[in-house]
Every structure is written in C-alpha cells, then in structure tokens.
Write a structure and sequence with these properties.
single chain, mainly beta, Jelly Rolls, 5-stranded antiparallel sheet, 3-stranded antiparallel sheet, 37% strand
Length: 105
C-alpha cells in the first residue's frame, strides 16, 4: 500500500492543551527536550543563534568528530513528535537555542 501526503503544514494547528513550547539551550553538553505527549503529533523546530549537531539513534552527537546531522542557524522544519522526543543536541558553531512549538492534526 502506498500513501502520499501533501500539504502537511496546512493541516497542523497549535495544540490547545497543557503542552507548551520548549526552548533548549544547546552548548558543549549533550541535551534533549522534555518529551511531548498527549495530542501533540508534530513539532515546529527552529534553530537560533548558531548551528547544532543532532542525532536520533540514541548515540550522542559530537562536535569534535562531527557525529550527527548539522542543522544550520536559521533551520526551520516540522518533525514528528517521536523524532523530536529522541533527538539529542550539541553545539556546532557556538552556543545555540532550539525552539520546539507543539502542533496537532
């Protein structure tokens, strides 16, 4: 069975429950968010101030060896709740902030 989803962004809305946005300060230590739950299905992710490295497989990102995926300052994207909940971050080019806005379908 094949499924094709289009215009996901236009179908999402801010959550109307107790789930609020989170801002994560990313520096030299590996950090992650407090898990989103409930009706949150996706999160809007925005990287501010500097680049960050991120991993999703349980390993820690590492600046020295460039382990992880590099997200540049200014990156914006929509992630599934499951992806956001397992993400681990470390600074890339400098201390950064990553903001997570909870969304639901």
């Amino acid at each position: 069975m094949n499924v094709h989803v289009t215009n996901l962004e236009s179908q999402l809305k801010p959550t109307g429950n107790s789930q609020v946005a989170q801002e994560l300060d990313v520096a030299a230590a590996v950090v992650g968010i407090t898990d989103f739950t409930g009706i949150v299905t996706h999160v809007w992710v925005s990287v501010k101030a500097a680049s960050v490295y991120v991993t999703f497989d349980g390993t820690d990102p590492d600046t020295a060896t460039a382990v992880g995926i590099l997200l540049a300052n200014g990156y914006n994207g929509i992630w599934s709740r499951a992806l956001a909940n397992v993400a681990k971050f470390i600074k890339g080019s400098g201390d950064a902030t990553v903001r997570f806005e909870p969304l639901s379908e």
